[in-house]
UniProtKB/TrEMBL annotation:
Signal sequence region: 1-23
Database matches in PANTHER family: ALIPHATIC SULFONATES-BINDING PROTEIN-RELATED (PTHR30024)
InterPro entries assigned to the protein according to its UniProt record, in alphabetical order: ABC_SsuA_sub-bd, NrtA/CpmA_ABC-bd_dom, Solute-binding_3/MltF_N
Subcellular location: Endomembrane system
Similarity comment: family membership: Belongs to the bacterial solute-binding protein SsuA/TauA family.
Keyword presence, Endoplasmic reticulum: no
Official protein name in the record: ABC transporter substrate-binding protein
Any one GO CC term of the record: endomembrane system
Keywords: Cell inner membrane, Cell membrane, Membrane, Signal, Transport
Length: 322
């Protein structure tokens, strides 16, 4: 009889534990995450999801949006639709400076990783050949828009201007093939894909325009961060695990990239050669973005150091460093 009673007690206690665990799981607030479509810069996010790094940190992450450009991500933040995102640094700077969003940068995601592509049989052989040409960019105030303007020199000079048109990266190779544009600048893997398709050739990699330039960042909505500080720290830890994984297990990282993009292995490997994954925030690069965008008139920042304190999450580096 005692054995039966003990067995019943053990069974009931086990059910209680399971019920408690399930109850605790339901109390974990999911992080509403967003990223850019097929952007291989965002591989750390895919790795974290595939390898369970968010789960290891006790986090639930749900993908709330897959967007085609950084400004679209900023609009989602503005609408209160997402909590975190992997997104370009330039659109983040623009949106924060213009007061359309209240977000902070948590970590770097990558440096470099974009390219200017021209038609396979194009006679354009250097940057100067882009002047007056029809060039596709993912959007104004994107990293790629910034890089194109930086490559061309003073954007205020008529002689240095290109005819820029906004085209979403998945459509760029097609637009190049049908001569709607004569060149485009995009994040990987779209340059590598255009080359692999026999549509285009790389005119210049972004690292040759600005060496080690910061590109994508992990960003958080400030209202979310104020009430979920512990979750924010855990998300940063999961991100770091992903960065380490990419460096230590590249073949497995390639497999994950193929899974999330649907592209072939050759394209993925060629694209990844052009990207450096890193978590340490490039503060000097952030300053340069702000100064350049200020000069273009995209933003108005009177006090750069105050802006740095505003846009960088507390404790992430020293925003006052010169």
């Amino acid at each position: 009889m005692k054995r039966v009673a003990l067995a019943v007690f053990s069974f009931c206690f086990g059910l209680l534990l399971v019920g408690t665990a399930n109850s605790q799981d339901t109390l974990v607030q999911p992080i509403r995450m967003a990223y850019l479509q097929n952007d291989i810069h965002h591989l750390p996010l895919w790795v974290a999801m595939d390898r369970g790094f968010f789960n290891e940190e006790g986090l639930k992450v749900q993908i709330e949006g897959i967007f085609r450009s950084g400004p679209e991500v900023m609009s989602a933040f503005s609408a209160g639709a997402i909590d975190m995102a992997y997104v370009g640094e330039a659109p983040t700077v623009t949106a924060v400076a213009n007061g359309t969003v209240k977000v902070a940068i948590l970590a770097q995601v990558n440096t470099e990783g974009s390219a200017i592509v021209v038609g396979k049989n194009s006679q354009i052989t250097d940057i100067s050949g882009l002047k007056g040409r029809q060039i596709g960019v993912p959007g104004y105030s994107t990293v790629q828009d910034f890089l194109l303007r930086k490559a061309l020199g003073d954007p205020g000079s008529d002689g240095n201007r290109a005819n820029v048109t906004v085209i979403k990266p998945p459509e760029m190779a097609g637009a190049l093939r049908t001569n709607q544009i004569e060149a485009f600048v995009a994040w990987e893997p779209y340059p590598a894909q255009a080359v692999g398709m026999g549509v285009g050739k790389v005119l210049v990699y972004s690292g040759d325009i600005w060496r080690n330039h910061p590109c994508c960042v992990l960003v958080v909505d400030k209202r979310f961060a104020e009430t979920n500080g512990a979750m924010v720290k855990k998300a940063i830890q999961a991100h770091q695990k992903s960065i380490d994984f990419i460096h230590e297990k590249q073949d497995e990282a390639v497999r994950i990239a193929i899974k999330y993009t649907g592209l072939d292995e050759g394209t993925i490997r060629n694209a990844m050669k052009n990207v450096t994954y890193i978590s340490s925030l490039n503060l000097e690069g952030l300053r340069e973005y702000a100064k350049f965008l200020n000069g273009l008139g995209y933003i108005k920042v009177n006090d750069l150091e105050s802006f740095m304190e505003k846009i960088v999450y507390p404790g992430i580096g020293d925003a006052k460093r010169n």
